[in-house]
């Protein structure tokens, strides 16, 4: 019944999904943190940029962003992110698109965490002579991250599922393999069940682990 699995590299496809998820998670965490810092910062221009970026990018369909990275950045502007072959270029462009999109949700989660930190702590830090950057990195963000571990887990879970959109530009991951399998095999329901189970195996442990970590690191108020 599962003989069709011998003809396809299922583990390799899901490994591609894991790579997309991990690299995009790192990129979105870094960029999302920068955006959050902009949104709570004292410089009006940076606050305006952060607000505009989040409100615009998160309301654009992810498929449009992924297609833009391939058709717009690569084919029109010639951006290849240091790669030379088609497969690597599209993989890196997919990471870029996923990171740019997911960073908006990371930013909003972090901003909510920043708002949970008592204002008196920031005022006390400034009274000691710390700069805004020092207050943010040494006092505010460590507590904000602890407060939003579970929301960040939800963002990571959504990112894992959103990697399927990368199939639109030919990135070798689980959704693209599923498309090929359905086109060549007659077992549509079984193929869908196998791919769905694979995503459950990726997503469920993520939620459980982050939920446990979030409870352990929760800030006691």
TrEMBL record:
A UniProt-annotated Pfam family: BPD_transp_1
Its membrane topology: Multi-pass membrane protein
Coiled-coil stretches noted in the UniProt entry, renumbered to this chain: none
Ranges where the ABC transmembrane type-1 domain occurs: 14-210
Compartment(s): Cell membrane
CDD domains per the UniProt record, alphabetical: TM_PBP2
Membrane spanning residue stretches: 20-40, 52-73, 93-112, 124-145, 151-176, 188-213
UniProt keyword annotations, A-Z: Amino-acid transport, Cell membrane, Membrane, Transmembrane, Transmembrane helix, Transport
First-listed, main subcellular location of the protein, grouped into a coarse class: membrane
Sequence similarity: Belongs to the binding-protein-dependent transport system permease family. HisMQ subfamily.
UniProt-listed PANTHER family: AMINO-ACID ABC TRANSPORTER PERMEASE PROTEIN YHDX-RELATED (PTHR30614:SF37), MEMBRANE COMPONENT OF AMINO ACID ABC TRANSPORTER (PTHR30614)
Protein's recorded name: Amino acid ABC transporter permease
Organism: Streptomyces gibsoniae
